[in-house]
Amino acid sequence: MPALAQFSMVPAPMTGGIAKSSTATGDKEYRTDAARHLYAAFPMRIMRGKMPPMLYSVMAVETEIDATGQVVNVSVVRKPAADEVAPWVVAMIKRAGPFPAPAAAGAATVRYFEIWLVDKSGLFQLDTLTEGQR
């Protein structure tokens, strides 16, 4: 399968381990901050413009972040059609830490849900910030 190689290596995040605090007051608002953080961490993997009509894989993930922005847990809620995508996405989320500290959410941890839209090229968009499909 030719697309498999696209998902064999997780790039180093560009954020350098620095994350701002989040001003989100709840899990849904935090989702946007986390999506922006992932885009900043992996700008070379973001698909610009509209996604193609046929996506290589769609995956739903729930991520738990502690009060300092560290990734506590990543759970696959909906498994992708392409098996090689799940470990790639989970590894990218973990490598992107620390995330913005969810201090304003008022809880020890925050959990947010995200849908990853993945192209066969290894580029992706997150549902929260997607530019849509052609």
Describe the structure concisely.
This protein has 134 residues and is α+β, with helices and mostly antiparallel strands.
Structure report:
With 134 residues, this protein is of the alpha+beta class. The chain has a single domain (2-7, 23-46, 55-122), classed as Fusion Protein Consisting Of Minor Coat Protein, Glycine Rich Linker, Tola, And A His Tag, Chain: A, Domain 2 (2-Layer Sandwich). 19% of the residues lie in helices and 23% in strands. The protein has 2 helices and 4 strands. The protein has helices spanning 27-41, 85-95, and strands at residues 57-66, 71-78, 109-118, 124-126. A hairpin with a 4-residue loop joins β1 (57-66) and β2. The longest helix is centred in the N-terminal third of the chain and has 15 residues, at 27-41.
- Looking at CATH, which topology would you report? Fusion Protein Consisting Of Minor Coat Protein, Glycine Rich Linker, Tola, And A His Tag, Chain: A, Domain 2
Approximate strand percentage: 15-25%
| Average pLDDT for all residues | 89
Instruction: Please indicate the count of domains.
Output: 1
Major β-sheet strand ordering: 2-1-3-4
Fill in the keyword field for this structure.
134 residues, alpha+beta, Fusion Protein Consisting Of Minor Coat Protein, Glycine Rich Linker, Tola, And A His Tag, Chain: A, Domain 2, 4 strands
